[in-house]
Design goal:
Elements lengths: L1 H4 L8 H18 L2 H12 L3 H7 L1 H8 L8 H7 L1 E2 L7 H22 L6 H9 L14 E5 L6 E3 L4 E5 L4 H13 L8
Parallel strand pairs: 1-2, 2-4
Antiparallel strand pairs: 3-4
């Protein structure tokens, strides 16, 4: 690898070793990727985007650089589109009650320091531990189900089906049990 990088030389001192390591790191991260970086710059220059990026870097920071955002109940709630039944139907009334359980449940998980976290709920529903900077694709959906007492998720479609239950306590117990007993792709 050192010969490929053009960093191969005879080392007599510890300082020579440090120079070789510095040269290799520069080759590995900059020169080896030079064509890719240049191609990326040319792509950004399309429609004068590179010029705008250079003039106003702070405006593009959130889009171009990763920043870890703390997952909150409100943020998690807003990720999901809710699929309600027809307006005015008895099904819609039940779903409206259960969506309030869902909102209370998210707040409860955020506030308590138990074994379940908001990240666990996101992982259960989407297979992701955090929200990607470019958003989640496909857009996550929150559906209602009466066939199972426990939540069911389809991570390929980013869909979570929550149970329609008659009390918040039953809902919380079912959600905790369902999410905690799903392995999450073998991740701890």
């Amino acid at each position: 690898m050192l010969q490929t990088a053009g960093c191969y030389r005879f080392m007599r001192t510890l300082e020579d070793k440090k120079k070789v390591v510095a040269d290799y790191i520069q080759w590995y991260f900059i020169y080896r990727n030079h064509l890719s970086i240049q191609s990326f710059r040319e792509g950004l220059a399309t429609l004068d985007f590179l010029n705008a990026l250079e003039q106003h870097p702070s405006l593009f920071f959130s889009f171009m650089c990763y920043t870890e955002t703390r997952l909150t109940a409100d943020l998690l709630e807003n990720i999901f589109h809710v699929q309600f039944g027809p307006p005015g139907s008895s099904r819609r009334q039940e779903e409206t009650r259960v969506i309030s359980y869902w909102q209370d449940y998210l707040l409860s998980v955020e506030e308590r320091n138990g074994s379940l976290s908001l990240e666990d709920i996101l992982m259960f529903a989407t297979g992701l531990r955090e929200i990607p900077p470019a958003a989640i694709q496909p857009k996550p959906w929150l559906l209602f189900q009466t066939t199972s007492r426990f939540p069911v998720a389809d991570v390929c479609a980013n869909t979570i089906k929550i149970p329609v239950l008659h009390s918040y306590e039953d809902f919380q117990e079912a959600m905790d049990y369902g999410i905690q007993n799903s392995p999450g792709f073998g991740l701890p």
